[in-house]
Amino acid sequence: MEPQAPAVVAVVVASDPGPWLEETLAGLAAQDYPNLSVLVVDNASVEDPTPRVAAVMPGAYVRRLEVPSGYSAAANEALEVVEGAAFYLMCHDDVALEPDAVRLLVEEAFRSNAGLVAPKLVAWDDPQVLRQVGMGADKAGTPVPLAQPGELDQEQHDAVRDVFVAPGGAVLVRSDLFDALGGFDPAMVLYGEDVDLSWRAQVAGARVVVAPAARARHMEAASRGLRDLSRLPGGAIPALVLRRRHELRAALTNYGFWHRLRVEPQLVVHSVAEVLMAGLTGRRESARAAASAWAWNLRRPGQLRRRRRRLATCRRLGDGEVRLLQSSSTERLSGLVEDAFDRAATHVPHRQAAAGPTLPPPRPWLIPAVWGLIVVVLVFGSRAVLTQGLPAVGTMARFPSAWHLLGAYAASGRQAGLGQAGSAPLAFALLGVLGVVLGDSMGLLRDVVVVGMLPLGALGAYRAARPLGSVRGQLVATAVYLALPLPYSAIANGRWAAAVAYGAFPWVVGHLGRASGLAPFDQDGPAGPRRWVGLGLVLALAGALVPAAVPVAVLAGVGLVLGSVTLGRGGTGELAGSVRALVAAAAAGAVAWALAFPWSYDLVSPGAQGSAVLGVPEPVYRAVGLGSLLGFRPVPGGVEFLGWMVLLAAALPLLLGRGWRLAWSVRLWWVAILCWAAAWAGGRGWLGFAVPEPGVMAAMAGAALALSAGIGMATFEADLVGYRVGWRQLVSLLAAAGVTLAVGGAALQSVSGRWGAGTADLSGELAPLLAPVRPGYRVLWVGDPRAVPLSGWARPDGTSYAVAYDGPGDLLVQWPPPDPGRARAADADLSLAEQGATVQLGRLLGDLGIRYLVVPTRQVPSIEPSPDLAPPPRLVAALSRQLDLKPVPVDPSLQIFENTTWTAADRRPAVGSHRPAGRALALALEGLAWAAALALAWSARRRPEDRGEAAGVGDPGAAEAAPAGAVAGGGG
């Protein structure tokens, strides 16, 4: 008696099947395998497919589900209704097997002792085109196809081999293995269940092989949009979102505990990198899918734990061994980078004239080469900063602990100045949260925030130039912005506001361009109020760190309007677009003000000084010169002419541009001119009101002219190619030489590894002196605003004064209350001493708890190139006459006087106008406002085609069966 062949049950999951169902069933009916049964699980189709099944296979068993479910849950019905089967053949309803396929799969399962065996899948309409011959997967669970899209079948993949994934469509699986693993993951309604099952099978010690001799045609109905997916659980979810969810779920489930500790941080980094890369390349759907995958999985911790426990019961292979079977590359990020290069190489400049010669498209390696060089230079230039840290010089104070910042933000009063009441700045909350994320490594956070403004500004310039439609233009704008001397002198001299403005303002300029709705910034659809929220978020974040960012953004909007008025030839349409940008800047400023409430209210409340927003103005006699402003070096030190070089590239479209290129260059130059003029005239007191510090104004001018330089490259591509060699080409060569020289000068700044910053800071210089006998004393700083390391209040003689606790002060005193309050008494006492009305200033200051009075004469202690910023001689002479102030020699750049009559200060913060319960309510409302603003900004970024996005974009290796129902079993 011949032994009976092992029983195989083909489980076909059908969901509103199309005309392909009959061909699928006919393929199963024609099999030459002697012990095959067929179970059709109908996933609650609108039309009962039982008559269609009976017409082709009268012996097939049909199991109908009442409610639609995913493919995985439907296929798992086999565990309930099938008994005695040795193998399950899991099939979609659009797969047609060749007559010997089942027999060959079973034979290979015994020959290779495999748990899962996959056939060769070919195209439904053209069997010569390969679909899948097994798949790989990377550590993040992303499938890696082994056959290229559209690859012809020339028997090049016909060897039996181990693979990491048996692709969905048709796969033979041992029934005992399927039962031990609990079947497919029912939460994976569509896509990715094949990766997850194959992964778990190998963890359990089973082999996964592909048997190419067994062939099957695959329709891929879902990928081709032939299947209605709106009846999936959860509705018509975009296909990419489902894939990312399920890939992450597989990774979070299938690694063991210790391996997850190592892999999960990498998955977070991969997701963040994907979001950034997708944002830069305009793939917003990819960014949304990567972010939402974490949110979806983190909402289901119980499911993940249960599946981990079940897998642990059958684990036979360690994660290290499984990792060897996976792909070593990161398929998802590699695909995004390749897509970005493909777009760059084939992109045509926006509205470029079709007639006439044009430059050849850039090489695909141009973008990675330039960005790779940028990354190398930035990392090389920051190497000592990241290992040794930045000194606490200028206004770059040390950060207190994250919990201290958050506690100060939540408190109902402030310990700043002399402890007057007021709301804490929004910066405390932002930096406190970041500090918690970094494990309270506040020194690292400070260095990352400061040095991180360099790549942040470069990314902003690259993104702002994207609508130009010129890859070379984007790279030129990025290179020009990095070539500005401003950020490096700001880091070297400790100018917090200038460094932060450098990182933020390219993003502001890009938002203003899109808000105008003028070509070429009209590609994202019409501008409207919802887009103001995005700019408002940028200004809220920048304004929290540098309040002057908001008025400077409005000033940029005014510059765009003046540029359109100057053009005067574009009709009311162009002027209306610039007015839209100005209105957007003003409205975004209001959004930023609302998001920073109630601190923002204190900035404009009665008694508030303008220095709270704009900073203390520099003395008129030390106002920055026009040459330094034009050279983007408003902070002393360095060579100005290197900054002048970028003006050549920015002026190129003024000379050669046509159409929108000329118009936008004029507008951007007006932005720069307005910023320069305000900084130059305001520094000389000609405007009658204070203006932001020159470094902040220069940052906005630099962002505008970097974009103009990118337009210059687009001009060269679109407007210059048709001309014969002449003065135009000569001007372009001079502009290119200027940019090269400026970039070289910026690259030299990286040699020190500290961007020119020193190593000595105030903490080191003052530590021996200011170590308190007992805590509770204050330090009064007075002198030139550029030398005083704290943000304070202005005095009539052009100096500034500020108060710190127990030493040089930290971040908590960098945002003083807008109203000096009781601190005015210290200013009044200083005035009495200057007028000769007292020789016992110490007694007057001692009543305020002031133990030391510090007068800095240089911006950075003990650094000789730092310019002399000594205060007026009258102040120093008055202090020297005081009988109760004892000079203490410490550092040549500091004149320190010890008050011999001081009394301990009350360190308790003043209670504000709102009680703790009211403060808690204000914090809750502020959190809701931020959530609403983020949601509005995100929805405004979605393109119209994104909003109608369907879930039918296929993945070559994903199972695209519709929501599955139950699975059949048994016998005939």
Would you kindly provide a written description of the structure presented here, covering whatever features stand out?
The chain is α/β, with parallel strands linked by helices. Strands 1, 2, 3, 4, 5, 6, 7, 10, 11 and 12 form a 10-stranded mixed sheet that branches. The chain folds into 3 domains: 8-333, Spore Coat Polysaccharide Biosynthesis Protein SpsA, Chain A (Alpha-Beta Complex); 347-362 and 393-401 and 440-748, no CATH class; 762-899, no CATH class. The two termini are 23 Å apart. It is built from 37 helices and 18 strands. Strand 2, helix 2 (50-56) and strand 3 form a beta-alpha-beta unit. The chain is elongated, with a radius of gyration of 34 Å. 50% of the residues lie in helices and 10% in strands.
